[in-house]
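Sample entry (145 residues):
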Amino acid sequence: MKFSIRPAASDDVEILRTLVAAMGYQVTSQDLHTRLQALPEGHAVYVAESGSDGIGWIHVLISHNLIVGPRAEIAGLAVAPHAQGRGVGSALLSAAEEWTAQRGVRTIHLRSGTERKEAHAFYLSRGYEAVKTQLALTKSVAPTG
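Predicted structure, serialized as tokens:
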């Protein structure tokens, strides 16, 4: 399979939405467009495409943490089911790793749901190491002002 990797553009919203849905998350095209446009400096989104078919994406960002210092984080990675196992995920990870290195950051961190065993095997095969198991918690708060 021939494919290319390029930075995401605002007209990639439907590609991204379809692949996000394949991951089991629902988001509207409008919300995704707004989120893509609002990404601050220190974030990058890449799209993999084969011809005019969007087959994958990755979102990487730089975070600063008092405990570990600056690091890159993979905020999301998805490859269309028909394109999995064809090097697309590896190419997207390589793009994120290169982007990270160009910014002088030495560590990439990611989280992957415990049920995503195939994803874990993929990341481990790419040199990522399991460092801990965590409980993810969330809370909704009402905006003020």
